[in-house]
Amino acid sequence: MVKYGLDYTRCRWILPLLLGIGVIFGIIALAGRGWLESQTLPYVHQASLWESCRRPGEGGEWTCESLMGYAWGRAAAATYLVGFILLVICFALAIIAFAIDTLRFNFIRGIGGLLFVAAVFSVMGLVIYPVKFSTEIEMTGINMFSWAYGFAWTTAIMEICLGFFFCCLPNYEDQILGNVKPTYFYSSP
């Protein structure tokens, strides 16, 4: 953003926009039923962060079991949910930080630190879920962790990457605010 001469006033909303996209991906992951799905016919297993559903055959009725009955299910849901709530708080703080005319760079570094904490909670939930699910729940056939689980990992990766951006942005405070004289690499013959 700084090196190639992009103006701060034009690019100031890129980081909050990316945080907003991360929030949308987190909502999709929390609401999605595709954390685990059967990969081959007959499609007999489907799970979300909250419940595991199975059916006896191709035309049968789905029966669902809540994962909140398991301690690991509550732990996975709670840790991922805490990470998501911290992400939403970071999104609100970023909107406030970038809406102020005089940018507070220490405030922005704090948002980056909070994003790293959110990433730790999200990754804990994303590691607990598949490890305990595959050992505690009986699975039939070939199963795969699917699209909603992928959205959850995308959210966690965005939290980590945006945490770096928010922490490193204050290092370029003078360049962003235009307080540095341009350097010309031209010498006369």
TrEMBL record:
Organism encoding this protein: Bucorvus abyssinicus (Northern ground-hornbill)
Gene Ontology terms: biological process: apoptotic process; cell-cell adhesion
Stated name of the protein: p53 apoptosis effector related to PMP-22
Lineage of producing organism: Eukaryota, Metazoa, Chordata, Craniata, Vertebrata
Domain of life (superkingdom): Eukaryota
Topology of the protein relative to the lipid bilayer: Multi-pass membrane protein
Keywords: Apoptosis, Cell adhesion, Cell junction, Cell membrane, Cytoplasm, Membrane, Transmembrane, Transmembrane helix
GO CC terms: cytoplasm; desmosome; plasma membrane
Transmembrane intervals: 12-32, 77-100, 107-131, 151-172
Localisation: Cell junction, Desmosome; Cell membrane; Cytoplasm
One Pfam family matching this protein: PMP22_Claudin
Family per record: Belongs to the TMEM47 family.
